[in-house]
Each structure stands twice: as structure tokens, then as C-alpha cells.
Amino acid sequence: MLKKNAKLETQNSKLAVRVGYGFDSHEFRPGIPLKIGGIKIPHDLGLGGHSDGDVLLHAITDALLGAVAAPDIGALFPPSDPKWKDADSVIFLREALKRVGEAGYAIANMDASLILAAPKIDPHTGVIRLRLAELLGITGNRVGLKAKTPEGLNSENAALAHVVVLLEGIQKKSSPRRSTLRKRAP
Q: In the chain, which ranges are E strands?
């Protein structure tokens, strides 16, 4: 059985594309700045969490990590570790991007759905998409972002994010080989 799993692991590492899915949710709380997608948004409540509570960056981070079968955000940055208290979620995203690159992949596109009652995200969608494109190292036309209200979900005091990413394998550049043959003296 062990050999079979090792073979499966080797085959999976050669996939041309990989898909990752991420989800996160945080409750709204007073006295906290609201950050979504790396952007501060004016609102009287922010999202509680051990770090800065950026629900969208957390879901993107988990989607990227899942796509390359890496540990999730909670395993890499445990909320029990005081080191991550109030940390900027960009730190988590950069670690996930590093792992994606090390695995030999690049982001083809990302699509996200935010679910929250307030504030309205539509006025901020453009700037959030641009910030996400910048952070992810892709063009804005590869970043999808939608916002929905939580009708019937009984989650008016929370923000939820669902994210899917598509990764594509990248060709590793081979370095030119030096010739090991020596010229013979005449």
C-alpha cells in the first residue's frame, strides 16, 4: 500500500493544472478596522480574528495552499501563537504564494464571492481587485470578485468568503550545461 501511495504522490506532482478552494468567516466586532482583500474599508465594525481578520485574504491563502496540498493557514499560522496576533494577512498570502512557486505552479486565475450584509462592497470592488492582482502577481482580468448578501443564512453579523484558484504548471528554466569535454592540445 505504501508503494501505491508513493506512486500516486509522484503522479499528482506532475499535474498540468491544480484547483484550490478556500473558505473563511469572521464575526463583525466594534473597535477594529475593516480590511477586506488587503484594503481598509470605512465601516463602524471590523472583522474579529487573531490576525487582522481579512476574511478574503485568508480564504485566498487557504485556496492556494490547498491547490498544492500544503498545510492550511491555521496549521502554518496557529491562532494560539501570539506571534500572529494582529498580523497583516498579506504575510500569510505571501507564504502561500511562495509554496505555490516552489511546487512549480503559477496562478492562472482566482474567483471569489464575499457574503456580508454590510458594508456594500460594490463601491470598493475595483480597488480590491487591483490590490489582489498586485498581491497575486497577475493581471486584473484574472481576478473575479463578487459580493452577495446573506439572505436566509442568518449570518448578518459575519462576513464569509469563498475562493477558488486555478494553478497552471510552469516550466522550470534549465540552466545551460557546460561542456565537460576538454579540448585536446594539438
A: 17-30, 34-36, 39-41, 45-47, 105-115, 143-148, 158-169
* Number of residues that this document lists for the chain: 186
What domain range is 102 assigned to? 16-169
State the residue for C-alpha cell 490576525.
Answer: 51
| Nearest by Cα to 95 from 129, 131, 71, 127 | 71
Q: Other CB atoms closer than 10 Å to residue 137's CB: what's the count?
A: 11
Which CATH number is 121's domain given? Answer: 3.30.1330.50
Ramachandran category for residue 183: left, alpha or beta (phi over 0 → left; psi -120 to 50 → alpha): beta
User: What local confidence, expressed as pLDDT, does residue 8 receive?
Assistant: 52
Q: What is the rounded CA–CA span in Å between residue 169 and residue 82?
A: 36
Contact 61, 27 (CB under 8 A): no
Q: Which residues pair with 29 in a beta bridge?
A: 46
pTM: predicted TM-score of the whole model, two decimal places: 0.85
